Amino acid sequence: MQFSAILVAVACATGTVANLHFKAWCVSGGLADADPKNVGATKSACNAYKNRHTGDQWWDVCPDCVIETKDGNNKASQCHSSSQHIGGDEWQAYCIKFGATDGAAN
User: Fold this and answer.
1) Which of 17, 19, 38, 89 has the highest CB neighbour number within 10 Å of its CB?
2) What are the Cα distances from residue 98, in Å, to 14, 40, 61, 65, 86?
3) Which domains does the chain have, with CATH numbers?
4) CA dist., res. 21 & res. 47, Å (int)
5) Residue 58: burial class (beta carbons within 10 Å; 0-12, 13-18, 19+)
6) φ, ψ (nearest 5 deg) of residue 27
7) What is the Cβ-side half-sphere exposure of residue 30, based on CA atoms within 13 angstroms?
8) pLDDT band at 97 (very low <50, low <70, confident <90, very high)
9) According to the UniProt entry, where is the signal peptide (predicted)?
10) What is the H or E stretch that residue 41 is in?
11) What is the pTM of this model?
12) Each residue of 60-75: pLDDT tens digit?
């Protein structure tokens, strides 16, 4: 009984755990489409996230956010953070702000 109480206390003391990602992109038209990427929103969201300084949490800054293309194909653009700074909720908000219907990440 004491052990489970300690586990609960430790879990509560750790604070918020974010869902962080290496790569993210903005989508329009639904996630079920074959390639619904919204390149314009992705580029704008990535730039905004790179310039973001909203606090002292890992996802509050992204100094290494860069636009990455696959084989020079601009239609396959995504935002990349080699240090995994991209927060899913924050990314989604930026995508919507720049005209996409949603944000996606992995």
Assistant:
1) 38
2) 33, 8, 19, 17, 17
3) 19-105 (3.30.70)
4) 16
5) middle
6) -125, 155
7) 3
8) very high
9) 1-18
10) helix 39-50
11) 0.76
12) 999 999 999 877 777 7
Report the relative pairing of strands 86-87 and 20-21 from DSSP bridges. antiparallel
Residue 91, token pair as written in the block: 């990314």
Residue in this structure with the two tokens 């009984």, named with its chain if needed: 1
In the chain, the N- to C-terminal Cα span, in Å, equals 38
SS3 25: strand
Phi, psi of 2 (to 5 degrees): -65, -35
Residue 2, class by beta-carbon neighbours within 10 Å (0-12 exposed, 13-18 middle, 19+ buried)?
Answer: exposed
What number of residues does the chain have? 106
Neighbours of 93 (CB within 10 A): 15
Helices and strands: H and E segment counts in the chain: 3, 6
Other Cβ atoms less than 10 A from the Cβ of 15: the count is 8
pLDDT at 11 over 70: no
- What are the tens digits of pLDDT across the range 23-42? 999 998 755 555 578 999 99
